[in-house]
Amino acid sequence: MIKTAYQNELLFSGAIKKGDGGNDVKRVQEWLCLNAPNYPRAALTTSIDGQFGPATERAVQNFQAALKVPKTGVVTPELFKRLSAPLSNAFSAKPTAKDSRKAVIQIANAHLRQRSAELQTSDGQNLGPWVRGYCDGYDGSLFKWCAGFVQTVLDQTSSAYGRSFTAIMPHTLSCDTMALHGQGTGRLTRCANLRKKPACMRPGDVFLLRNPETDDWFHTGIVTAVLGDAIETLEGNTDVKGGSNGTAVFARVRNIQNATIDILSIDGL
């Protein structure tokens, strides 16, 4: 894979415990918060401040209780592996489909199943290990990660077959760069043509939302099904309102007649 920053999110050298501080403590706190939806009866959500205090110790013990292991309050490399398993599972998933379009959807669904999501703190949004994995090690309010999610899925899929997603688009975190390159190579179908002929898009293709007034692209995701004027999608950094700076990976339904949607073909991936 080209996008290998996720590997750094899985590294953990030694045990940490109450009284410790630093980046490894912060990463543990991030994963405690991210695991909360997976263990709704366990109190895991805690402050992300890099200080291993009594609240973090208790959250670690609650996670250990959920796993039915001794409640030591100490985070060992093995326990961190359990904390970060969702990201590891998503990024290590391999497609079983021989068709590249079906394979893209398989990999996108692997990330959805692992509850890929960002964190938000007083420092801003678009934070955490999932965002850094998608955005080549970067996170923070400036890093809207929808394009990073799309390219991760394409990278993971093409790499499984010994190919590179850069054969069809440049490595980028920018929706504009993806769309303009697709426009230059003939891969991009603009909204006006798409509305006349919805059949020109296929599952596995990349959709891009465009502001019709400024003619710039601001959000992207993967088409998983085409149903006339409706498309089903998998997209990162969105929310239940369909926003372009949300919180997680969601499966959505969008209407191509009600939004300015362009389509980028993945033929040749």
UniProtKB/TrEMBL annotation:
Q: Which organism is it from?
A: Spirosoma liriopis
Q: Name one Pfam family in it.
A: PG_binding_1
Under the heading InterPro entries, the entry gives:
Peptidoglycan-bd-like (IPR002477), PGBD-like_sf (IPR036365), PGBDSf (IPR036366)
Domain of life here?
Answer: Bacteria
Give start and end of each Peptidoglycan binding-like domain.
Answer: 22-83
> What is the protein named?
Peptidoglycan-binding protein
